Amino acid sequence: MDHLLVVLVLLWGSGLQAEDPVRLVGGASRCAGTLEVKQGEWRPVDATYWTLKEAAVACRDLDCGSAVSTERLNENSRTRVWRIKPDCVRSGSALTDCATSLPSSPNVELTCSDSIRLVNGSSLCSGRLEVKSEQSWSSVCEADFDQQDAEVVCRELGCGAPSVLQGALYGEVEAPMWTKEFQCGGHESTLLDCGRSDSTRSTCSPGKAVGLTCSEPVRLVGGASRCAGTLEVKQGEWRQVGESGWTLKEAAAVCRHLDCGSAVSMRHKTYKSGINTWEITSDCVHSGSALRDCVSSQYSYFTMDLTCSDSIRLVNGSSLCSGRLEVKSEQSWSSVCEADFDQQDAEVVCRELGCGAPSVLQGALYGEVEASMWTKEFQCGGHESTLLDCGRSDSTRSTCSPGKAVGLTCSDPVRLVGGASRCAGTLEVKQGEWRPVDTYVSEKVAALVCRALDCGSFVSRETREGSSSRPVWRVTFDCVHSGSTLRECVTPDATYTIMDITCSGQQGAEVMPTGEH
Q: β-strand 372-373 against 332-335: which pairing, if any?
């Protein structure tokens, strides 16, 4: 044993260290290329479900910078691969410990930044800036770094434009200090392409190391406004997001990121031949991760069109159809005092948000005022398409008494049509448009529908054939059972069977015609 230890020490001292079991091959540098892992033998890694979150582990193992992009290589090969499960990697295990053997499969190609990284941030596009030189990482003092330098860093990392540049946001300096001042023009491809001049400092005052947040590269394109259109995310390149089983709850995360209002509707766009898209799982969205960090490459026949409200939202509510009302003007959100808002105004808001009729209008239901106050009184007739289409007059108030900010609850747009009464018939939900719901509706969900319609208790449900030309909704059960409304839990589907429900209440009441829009 002592002899073996001496040999190992001598080998280490002579520089003959163990080979790193992770590498990137065939790229422009050692920090880019096809990912290969050695577990007995070198093999490429299967691309299934790989996102930037897993790629960041490989970049870290290689002492490269931040993960910039992942790509799925669809080349035909008979080479066996390693499958590395994302949940294993996220548990902190080494890549080699997470590898299992698979037959040939599309490989994953990674790009890491060579010489910069953001550390201790909440996403790959935020953190304390570190620069690599001569195999060591150094922090940068904010006196040696400006907005144009930040633009270059964000672009090099594949992120959006800089949104916050401030010291001490992401912890105190742990690495040594970079001793040169950057002098970027803002157009350079990498930070180390920028001019530099010697800085007089070798240390940085506490709280003065560069902390940088880049915006997330997400957009809606082709719609009537910047808050509507086809969802696209940039990771190396802009791509549409494919059908990922999303509901309005996931769409709401996009609307928030874009500083739009509430999520109103979601549609699928169909491609006959299929295209390369990004897949973003709902679990990753709900974890609070940035959308860019959640994408994985997929081939899909469907992409997603989203509509967010432009200038109103309900916040702090139990659903997208309830909360404290806020109105956007000149890029800031303001609460509304209930003295400046009435039932007709509420009808317009609920309709603009794609919800049902107002059911509760009362101050202090959803927390105290945090935003500034809206200073005009709304004068809606009740027929307007948006709240900002309504007439307005100047209000005398600039503040609102505690408990007097508008709290609004709109009903869930759910109905039963074509039956013997309004409490029996085909289940339909409105999200942009009324559609029937497919057959995968449990008795528990049916009972919720009966209660929501004030129709007593659930009696029966029946499956029947629907129209092949009319699209339907599929209900995501986990979503409903978590307490969310039906409107928030439906996703577009293509089935021809629909669900009829009978509730106990109002058996002789007025009948809702089938197919009313």
A: parallel
- For residue 261, give the 3-state DSSP assignment: coil
Distances (CA, A) of 137 to 91, 186, 508: 26, 23, 76
On the CB side of 130, how many CA atoms lie within 13 Å of its CA? Answer: 25
Output the DSSP codes for 44-67. EBB-TT--HHHHHHHHHHTT---E
> Which alpha helices (DSSP H) does 113-266 contain, by range?
147-156, 248-257
Give me the phi and psi of 149, to 5 degrees please: -60, -40
Rounded to whole angstroms, the Cα distance separating 427 from 425 reads: 6
Q: With contact defined as beta carbons under 8 Å apart, do 152 and 196 qualify?
A: no
For residue 241, how many other CB atoms are within 10 A of its CB?
A: 26
Most confident of the following: 173-182, 232-241, 365-374: 232-241
Distance of CA 394 to the CA centre of its chain: 38
Per the listing, tokens 């432009």 go with: 310
- Contact yes or no for 313/333 (Cβ under 8 A): yes
First to last CA, the chain: 83
Nearest by Cα to 139 from 171, 110, 103: 171
Q: Give the long-range contacts of residues 20-29, CB within 8 A, separation 24 or more.
A: 20/61, 20/62, 21/95, 21/96, 22/58, 22/61, 22/62, 22/95, 22/96, 23/62, 24/58, 24/62, 24/110, 24/112, 27/109, 27/111, 29/114
Contact at 8 Å (CB) between 292 and 219?
A: no
- Residue 177: left (phi > 0), alpha (psi -120 to 50), or beta? beta
DSSP, residue by residue, 409-422 = EEPP-EEEEESSST
| Model pLDDT for residues 307-340, shown as the tens digit of each residue | 999 999 999 999 999 999 999 988 899 999 888 8
Residue 263: strand, helix, or coil: strand
Instruction: Please check whether residue 334 is in contact with residue 327, taking contact to mean a CB–CB distance below 8 angstroms.
Output: yes
> Is residue 156 within 8 Å of 196, Cβ to Cβ?
no
Tell me the average pLDDT of the chain.
86
pTM as predicted: 0.85
Cα gap 281→296, rounded to integer Å? 9
Contact 384, 344 (CB under 8 A): no
Computed from CA positions of residues 269, 273, 279, 283, in that sequence, does the dihedral angle turn out positive or negative?
positive
Q: In this structure, are residues 95 and 61 in contact, taking their beta carbons and an 8 Å threshold?
A: yes
Buried b (16+ CB within 10 A) or exposed e, 446-479: bbbbbeebebeebbebeeeebeeeeebbbbbeeb
DSSP 73: E
Inform me whether the pLDDT recorded for 507 exceeds 80: no
Beta-strand relationship, 228-235 and 218-222: antiparallel
